[in-house]
Amino acid sequence: MPRNEVLVTLRRARGWTQEDLAQQVAQVVAVLGSNVAPDARLVSAWERGEIRWPQRHYRHALRMLFGVTSDEALGFIRPGKDPARRHPRVLVSVLDFDLEGSTVRRADFLKSIAGVAFGLTSGEGLQSWLGVDPSRSVKPRVLGASDVAAIEQTTARFAAWDRTQGGILSVDAMLGQLNWAATLLDKGRFASEQVRRRMFSAVANLAEVAGFAAYDAGMHAEARRAFLLGIHAAAEAEDWPLRANVLSDMARQAITLGHPEDGLDLMQIAIYGADGRATPATQAMLQVVLGRVYGAMGKVRECRNAIAKADDVYEPPTDEDPAWISYYIPAQLAGDSGVALYNGSVHDHTLREVSAQRLSNAAANYGPAYPRSTAFCLAKLTVLRLDQGEPDEAATLGRQLLELADGIASARLNDDYRLIRAHAKRYQSHGDVAELVADLP
């Protein structure tokens, strides 16, 4: 059997012995509720290739420890597959840096963002990956607190813009700003260690906002690049809740792209990494996204449990919360959990009404600062009422949606319009529904 050089390399990169890896796996599987644990001999068997497909809980723990989202990325081979012909789809490699003991220079870290994820050649750097014109790059200088504040303020404006107008209208400006901010990390020097960490967090937050706008615009490749930059910048800042937030965005994207199993891996990494560090609002958000993943997978019981946990842990964000979670007001919890239950209702129709109740509550309470979120709720409500045999109510909700969504440019909202058309087909003879469908963008 061929050696599993991938797993060997991952282990050695952490500076772990086989016994160390066995202990790390044992700790994770214990957290996940299993009472079995490997020893160094079993790890050796994995690495020698004697065991090419370990038990599921071991593979799960290893994915979480090394921050990857497929078993193939660990060097394992599913039974029945020819390793010479397989082409594994790896969504992202999430490197969990041990920054306290790391001797990797900041420049090496930045190069690894592009090199590890996108296979750049040794002559390519961060600027070429991001598409930055070198002649317009920022000049090296000392960066201070005012530079961090400028990025934080710009990001806050972009986030508000995205919520109100949609990603299609805002994404180009955001990606351009992200290009510029990334060159600061590449070329700048920092006035202090505190400034350095704040700057990496600020750029990570900007990357998350830009990535989400790209995702909302249907620009999935650009979104993944921005998200990946955000993950690594957050890790460099040791901002684990922010990293979890970016991972949750990637999980949402995975659902949209029809890969909820990738979303589950991402959310397990996110929740594990943020454990004990995240505020109640962030914990609730992560549980809701986990519920959305389970709902999309048809795992209704797990979906319900995740939403119940979110309800239990949730507290509205305060000044003590990071700015990036300030949007998670009670209406957002209601709307996101309503969507999660809507996903589950495709597999269990008893969830339709409880989903509708949450979506209605959210739509009524979002307020003028959240028109896109309100529109998503109204769209899902329209579909639910059509499915429940209430075409009059569906037509009324659809009209509210069209009035509210005028001026919002979102590929995700366009997907919802297509969903309404599909579910309205059996009501072609219903005048109000037919008119609504005719007026959909």
Summarize the structure.
By secondary structure, the chain is mostly helical.
Q: Would you write up a description of this structure?
A:
By secondary structure, this protein is mostly helical. Among the domains are: about 5-75, 434 Repressor (Amino-terminal Domain); about 105-225, no CATH class. Helix content is about 65%, strand content about 0%. It contains 20 helices and two strands. The N and C termini lie far apart (about 55 Å). The model is unreliable at about 80-135 (pLDDT under 50).
- Helical content class: 55-70%
- Major beta sheet, specifics? 2 strands, parallel
Separation of termini? 57 Å
Q: For the CA atoms, what is the radius of gyration?
A: 23 Å
The chain-level mean pLDDT equals 84
Global structural class: mainly alpha
Strand line-up of the largest beta sheet: 1-2
Strand content: under 5%
Q: Ranges with pLDDT <50 over ≥5 residues?
A: 81-137
Shape: globular
What is the tally of beta strands? 2
Order of helices and strands: HHHHHHEHHEHHHHHHHHHHHH
